[in-house]
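Page header: ASSEMBLY MODEL / two components / 865 residues total.
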Amino acid sequence: MASESESLPLGRMAPPVPAGLDIPPEPPDVGARALSVASRLLCGASTFFFLAFLFAYFYLRSINQDHFWLPSAAQLKEQKELHVSLKPDQALGAVFIVCVVLSVLLAFLASRRMKQQSQSWLPPAIGALVLGIGAVAAQCIEFIVQKFGPTDGAFASVFCAWLAFYLIAILGTMYWLETQVATELRARRQPAAHGDIRDPDRLIAPSLDAAVFYWGFLAGIGIVTYVTLYLL
Amino acid sequence: MSTTAAAVSTPAPASRPLWRRLIGFNLLTAVLLGIGGYYLGWFIGHQIKGSSFHNQVPSSENDVALLLAYFFGVIGFLIGLGFANYPVSRMLGRPASLREKEQEGWGRYFGLCTDHKVVGIQYLIGIGVFFFIGGLNAMLIRAELLHNTPTFVGPGQYISLVGMHGTMMMGMMTSGILGPFANYFVPIMIGARRMAFPRIEALTFWLLMAAGFILTSTIFFGGFPTGWTGYEPLNDQAVMGMDSYICFFALVGISMCLLGLNMMATIITMRAPGLTWSRLPIFVWSVFATSVLMVLAAPMLVATLLMAALDRTINTSFFITGGGGSSYLFENLFWFFGHPEVYILALPGFGIVLELLPVFTRKPLWGYRLAVSGMLGVSLMSFFVWQHHLFVSGINADLRPFYMLSTEIISIPTGFIFMCVMGTLWKARTSFTVPMLFCLGWTFNFLIGGLSGVFLSDTPSDTTTHGSFFVMAHFHYTIMGGLIFTFFAAIYYWIPKMTGLRFNERLAKLHFWLMFVAFNSTFLPLFVLGMKGQPRRVSEYAPNLHGLNVWVSISAFVLGFSMLIFLANAVYSLIFVRLKAEQNPWRSKSIEWQVPTPVPVNNFEQIPVFDSDPYEYGVPLTVGPGQTAPAGA
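Prediction written out in full:
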């Protein structure tokens, strides 16, 4: 009851620490756990971002407003559009998704080697980076050679916008991966430049793990993207 | 990470001359680079318009140029503040560091600072400024409605005013509690020394400020005619001011998502020993539940606005019917974010009320677990109700019962919160302090907001009242009555900790009573006006509604005046007289009141070990072996 409680001493949620008890300033694994959690949350955010495009795809396809989901050549000519084919290049699409998948596999390999504290994690990580950039390049070539633009109906709009934002997401992830590779290369080249870092791998491992997890997830979104835009 | 290079504790930097302090990464550089970026984008946009897009962009409008100008402007602004330094140095392989070296003095409030307490105060001032701009718009709206025909602003300007007011309030106040108070207090409440990602924390604030300026700049581009919802096809047909809206809300969405992500990562990973989930302060739980919504719902908003921007600039066909798109798609995507947004605004308010009630009733919080489940339940269910906003917009009739039911069911977890409030108030000997008055005000207002919401969740009654002042009255009772009252409760409660100063109590009580009475006097009659058929977003109304509208307008002016009393009190008490606050003026058990004021940069000398929950008022004190009995406040 309130009246009784008012007479009681207030107390503290966290009592004073007894003398001699040493509590470290911050548990050493806090940063690693924060990165790990953040990468998972980022997966959630990315899912909902691309979900908007997936929803748009199926919604616009199902209503097929004025038959403009995939307009015919005649319709496009009526709209004074010069392009007539709305089929994306299957070969380039396949190259794109293969690059993504191979890049992820190499990234997982790098992460695994890092966990085994093997120094040989760098080559697969660099390979993952190159293939990731390769996927972006393949899709950019597709944008250049395809015979339709974003104004050629609803499918064309979804295709161009969805893939463009997916490429931006890949580039962001490649940047994340690159920072790990660059840190390791710099540490090997100039150990003194790392100040008080006794073990650079301890610094890189959690971040690499988080980046690889996110990249794997993004590749999953990439597969859904590929199936939806190229195969359906 | 133990292996990071930067030291957490930093020595005080040597004092530099003023001219030296103006050179480098600071707000001045940010503004200059922002302006430079803006004109660069504008120039590029006009170059693009001159070549490949010349057939697609009307000659009088150049959305490409404006959107690029905003984009480059924001990038320049952030580079000027120093946000690019760390990513570039990481790209070059320099090791990770936890955060920047902290400065002392006033300069840290005007730049990139990674101290969560500084960011909290930056948020409070920054959001406060835009809150007052939004409020000023409301005063202009009510001034126009003093007459039943257009008087000092035309119908076009009127709808722009309504849009500015709604968008400013809904966008900026999304972080109204999480920005200032969660950033400041969550790390302290969980026994941490910092947020999980301090730079991201600072980034969320500066993105929001850039967004606020962009929205304000819409007046130079003709405003926007859509209200805060930005509905298509009006969105696509609007003048360039619409680009400001799109850019503003996209930036708010990014800021919101990052803020939520940072909060969740902090709460999950950085709790001190002993602070189990069941001991977490209820305010932290509310922040957690809100953050879930922010992380998941905001990306949907960003994606939707990007689609709208592409429709306006390069003529894609997401929402343009003539090209195979559908305006109804926009409305679906928008409300998939929009309804969780309502709870993003409301949930932190629940947390504030539940956090403060035990302090002022000197009782343990009644139904802690029920309250937590209520907040998480609201979070989860808010993703399943969005279609009730579209009952009259062409929804398939077969879907209506599902969304009607899901919307009605969401009142159950909300009811849990109310039950906990009532249970805590039951037979309590309440101290009617200013924060407590605002909490009680919330109880009354949110009850009316919640009950009127039931009518809007029902398809038949919603069909009657949709688009009328009834809807406006409902959401002002939930958002202003729910969020703004708790925002002020939090200000009055935590300002003594944040500044070491306190408000003049008499003026504060005057603020509350005037605000409470004027608020109800303003918004209660709007239910009647809505039932009588006055539509939203239109300045012209039937002559028989004139008397009631005059009453509402005068009440609104009094409500605005109450805000001036608050402002005057803040200036008087915190700047001129500088009324000193006690160390723990409310005799709270919570840990934020047990650290010194001002709170040291690193919060704690040692990470605390928690051994009780924060609401054990009235529970006999146990003192463990080797511990000294703490002094009661």
